[in-house]
Automatic annotation (TrEMBL):
InterPro entries: Aldolase_TIM, Radical_SAM_PqqE_MftC-like, rSAM, rSAM_sf. Residues 24-251 form the Radical SAM core domain. Pfam families: Radical_SAM (PF04055). This is Radical SAM domain protein. It comes from Nitrospina watsonii. Keywords: Iron, Iron-sulfur, Metal-binding, S-adenosyl-L-methionine. Its cofactor is [4Fe-4S] cluster. It comes from the Bacteria.
Length: 302
């Protein structure tokens, strides 16, 4: 099962006179890496190299989260996303969710394995008291159990689907996220398959999201890294608005500072400051991952 991007590779490395810069049009979405880089899985394609022994980016604490939330008010942030690592490993996750929901809706990215009935019951209690809504995105790598577990580990499929079932019983709608292992032209077919799969599992109002494979982290080892000719140039935006890129309207806060986006939290050059305000400026699209975002139309949001 190949997870590398199914896109043509330019024959020659581009001549880059000037690296394009994406402007900051206004901070609409704030990402929070509450799960750091610690995960209960060791997937063979993780672009941030998250796994059970990687604590290079620590959990965000409740105090750190509240500081970002308070700062986000003056910047008119509209919604919040939390990710990791696995967010439900964070011992303060429920208090963090309560805090976020005071400010706006929150989408929770998770592999689903830790969504036990007891945890979901706590989530229901939080939602009942909250002003804003929680949304869930659970990740799989295949609709086939054996294919999925070959990438994620034994029993991951079963436990993830049990987590989805627990959310569904509680009335939460779940979005399914999958890394694309097929050609872009087949998205419509796979969307139909995935929606039917979710309906068969009694998920209310299911949605699916497909992500490209970023050739970094674990995938750079299991598939390949980026070629020198896979880079963004100004020509890439002749017929494509550069502000279509998510980094024109979002930022990623971690326990170690604020980064341009969720993809590049392990890249020192992607750290833009220690506060949100410091990052309200253009960003040069010099990393090869920017190439994947451009050619795939990628956005981390739902």
């Amino acid at each position: 099962m190949k997870l590398a991007p199914k896109v043509p590779i330019p024959e020659q490395a581009p001549v880059i006179d000037r690296v394009p810069e994406v402007p900051m049009t206004g901070l609409e979405t704030l990402w929070l890496q509450t799960g750091g880089t610690l995960c209960n899985l060791a997937c063979t394609h993780c672009f941030i190299s998250c796994h059970p022994k990687n604590d290079s980016i620590p959990f965000m604490t409740l105090q750190q989260t509240r500081a970002r939330l308070e700062e986000s008010v003056s910047l008119n942030v509209q919604d919040y996303y939390i990710t990791g690592g696995e967010v439900f490993l964070n011992p303060e996750i429920f208090e963090i969710l309560e805090a976020i929901l005071e400010y706006g809706p929150c989408t929770i990215l998770t592999n689903g394995l830790l969504l036990t009935p007891i945890r979901v019951e706590r989530l229901v209690e939080i939602q009942k008291k909250a002003t804003h809504a929680m949304h869930f995105r659970v990740s799989l790598d295949s609709l086939d159990e054996q294919e999925n577990d070959a990438i994620r580990g034994e029993n991951c499929f079963r436990l993830a689907m049990q987590g989805v079932a627990n959310l569904s019983k509680a009335g939460f709608s779940t979005h399914l996220t999958m890394v694309r292992s097929w050609d872009d032209e087949e998205d419509a077919v796979w969307e139909e398959k995935a929606l039917a799969f979710m309906k068969d599992h009694h998920v209310p109002e299911p949605q699916v999201k497909f992500l490209p494979g970023f050739l970094m982290g674990e995938l750079a080892h299991t598939e390949r890294g980026y070629h020198e000719n896979e880079r963004v140039t100004e020509k890439c935006f002749e017929n494509y608005p550069i502000t279509n890129l998510q980094c024109s309207s979002s930022r990623m806060a971690t326990s170690q500072g604020v980064y341009v986006c969720p993809i590049l939290v392990e890249e020192p050059s992607a750290k833009m400051g220690d506060t949100l305000e410091e990052t309200m400026r253009p960003f040069p699209l010099s990393h090869p991952a920017c190439y994947t975002c451009r050619i795939s139309g990628m956005t981390c949001k739902s």
